[in-house]
UniProtKB/TrEMBL annotation:
Catalyses which reaction(s): an aryl sulfate + H2O = a phenol + sulfate + H(+)
CDD domains: G6S (cd16147)
Family membership: Belongs to the sulfatase family.
Protein name stated in the entry: Arylsulfatase
InterPro entries: Alkaline_phosphatase_core_sf, Arylsulfatase, Sulfatase_CS, Sulfatase_N
Signal sequence, start to end: 1-24
Length: 592
């Protein structure tokens, strides 16, 4: 150990880096935007993010949120646990929001606390969770931060009229100030505070502006329209149009359940939606400026080379794709595939990882590892390989959702009955379990809905998710499977494997979430879908319990989510006996 440390110090001296800097634990900055898209190319319109982060770091193009809605996704980020384990599955009580975060015990057990306990100063500026309000901000106060400035409901999404609590103090309203700029200003103050004390402690700083989230007024009725923008940005991107990809307002309906019933958008709505996205891009300019200013301050303090900078968002966004009004909460790539850029010591520069799947469940383990902290046994994710200039890693990420899908914008949501009573335009039965697979040999998305409908997309031939391979004559995917093949096998054989993998992922904990195949094949001879497709496993997978629901609920109720246990393959006598038994579906009885 002494020889290794000496060599490190000598190498640092030869590179012109001070011994104290070489030995210091790194600072970590996390910028967390709200509802930022990947598939409408929002990062292409952020020049400072491109200059300081993407060109100086690694962009993960296959990074996913596991639940496409704000609060559950943020709790996923802060805990490293899937939503079915945190049981925070919505943005408001009883199934979500800050009160649910507290009642589930996570105010005493989350990333900022762990970082603080390991010797870091911790700071937060911006939105934390939904339903973190002027009434409950101190009941109890958020634990784990050296300094904080939280934007509070009910005015969280009002860009020019918002309320914050600074360092736990009484809420203060700011009328006429621009929320993302205010969040940035407080982040600069915390950054300067952390830099001033960096010789004693490294710092972990989170800046979480509300941009580009819709501007939302909650009371007396909910109104959700495009974000407001700063005066200096209001004339930008006037010629921008949402990319006219094959899934943009298609002639033929796509998807399943309520999505399949959406009418085609007319020209008036399309024009409105283009401007809606322009406003989102304009709102992101203040975030872009914040990134540039934070980089400048780190550089001036001599700490840029000792700081990891992470840029991401809580969930993605769709506008006009699949005929959808502005919003999220769906199982499409637009909603679950999100920006992720990391720069810092040893991170490959100007590098794109486009064949590796990572998820928000991996963020907390990654931050802990970068800080030199050990992984926690209750993590459902693993640290991302941020220092490797190779496209290798896990092939899977699980996704899940419960409850409603709520469209935004004046054509998607009128707030007719008010937010609490249930909007007229909210789409029920938007509960599903999904699976995204990505590797050199295949790229797939599979989902099972509470309505018994299923989706399967071959993302290599259909990246826009227009051709559901399980749809029968473009109708809902119920009943018998169409006669088709995938990966050299018939579809039903492939689905048997995918269903088994979802069965593991939908209730997994800890290592079962990162190594699901090993749960089914404990001998360790199956590591991927490709391995599992070996013909010798056909009967075994055919007899696995199938993913199903008995009802569509607004929250996580395991008792309505079908089988939770799966068969384990041993290759022994029990498996040979199973191969001789008739095929039995545990939900519907004998089916051969």
């Amino acid at each position: 150990m002494r020889i290794s440390h000496t060599l490190t110090v000598l190498a640092s001296l030869s590179a012109g880096v001070s011994v104290s800097a070489a030995a210091a634990r790194p600072n970590i900055v996390l910028v967390l935007t709200d509802d930022q898209d990947t598939h409408m190319n929002s990062l292409d319109h952020m020049p400072l993010v491109q200059k300081h982060l993407m060109r100086q770091g690694t962009t993960f193009t296959k990074h996913y949120c596991t639940v496409a809605i704000c609060c559950p996704s943020r709790v996923n980020l802060w805990t490293g646990q899937m939503a079915h384990n945190t049981n925070v599955t919505d943005v408001i009580p009883p199934f979500g929001g800050y009160p649910k975060f507290v009642s589930e015990g996570y105010n005493d057990n989350h990333l900022a606390l762990w970082m603080q306990e390991s010797g870091y100063n911790t700071y937060y500026s911006g939105k934390l969770f939904n339903h973190h309000t002027v009434d409950n901000y101190a009941d109890p106060p958020v634990r784990g931060f050296t300094g904080s400035n939280f934007v509070l409901d009910p005015s969280t999404y009002q860009y020019w009229n918002f309320t914050t609590s600074h360092n736990g103090g009484a809420p203060q309203n700011f009328l006429g100030k621009y929320s993302p700029d205010f969040t940035a200003a407080r982040a600069y103050e915390f950054l300067d505070e952390g830099l001033a004390a960096v010789d004693e402690k490294p710092f972990f700083l989170v800046a979480a502006p509300i941009a580009p989230h819709a501007q939302v007024v909650l009371y007396p009725t909910m109104e959700a329209g495009p974000p407001a923008v700063a005066e200096r940005h209001r004339d930008l991107f006037n010629d921008y149009q949402i990319p006219r990809t094959p899934n943009f307002n298609p002639e033929e309906a796509s998807g399943v359940s309520w999505i399949l019933r959406q009418p085609r958008l007319n020209d008036t709505v399309i024009e409105y939606n283009d401007e809606y996205q322009r406003q989102r891009l304009r709102s992101l300019q203040s975030v872009d400026e914040m990134v540039g200013e934070m980089i400048s301050r780190l550089d001036a303090a001599g700490q840029l080379g000792n700081t990891y900078f992470i840029y991401t968002t809580d969930n993605g966004y769709h506008i006009s794709q699949h005929r959808l009004h502005p919003g999220k909460e769906c199982s499409f790539e637009t909603d679950i595939n999100v920006p992720m850029v990391i720069r810092g010591p040893g991170v490959p520069q100007d590098f794109v990882k486009d064949a590796v799947v990572s998820s928000h469940t991996d963020v907390a383990p990654t931050v802990m590892k970068l800080a030199g902290n050990p992984p926690r046994p209750d993590f459902d994710g693993r640290a991302m390989a941020v220092h490797d200039a190779v496209n290798s890693g896990p092939e899977h990420v699980g996704t899940e959702f419960w409850g409603y899908a709520i469209p935004e914008g004046k054509y998607g949501y009128s707030g007719k009955y008010g937010f609490i009573d249930g909007p007229a335009e909210a789409h029920p039965n938007n509960t599903y379990k999904g699976l995204r697979l990505e590797c050199a040999d295949y790229s797939l998305y599979y989902a099972v809905w509470c309505t018994h409908e299923r989706q399967l997309y071959n993302m290599r031939t259909d990246p826009w998710q227009m051709d559901n391979l399980l749809a029968n004559n473009k109708e809902k995917s119920k009943g018998s499977l169409p006669a088709a093949t995938l990966l050299g096998r018939d579809l039903e054989t492939v689905i048997d494997r995918l269903d088994a993998l979802v069965l593991v992922m939908k209730s997994c904990k800890g290592a079962a979430c990162t190594e699901p195949w090993r749960r089914i094949h404990p001998k360790g001879d199956v590591h991927s879908l490709k391995d599992a497709l070996a013909p010798r496993f056909d009967v075994f997978y055919k007899k696995q319990p199938k993913v199903s629901f008995t009802s569509c609920e607004l929250g996580y109720f395991p008792e309505v989510e079908g089988p939770m246990d799966y068969h384990v393959f041993s290759g022994g006598a029990l498996d040979r006996i199973r191969e001789q038994l008739p095929l039995v579906d545990p939900n519907w009885g004998l089916w051969t």
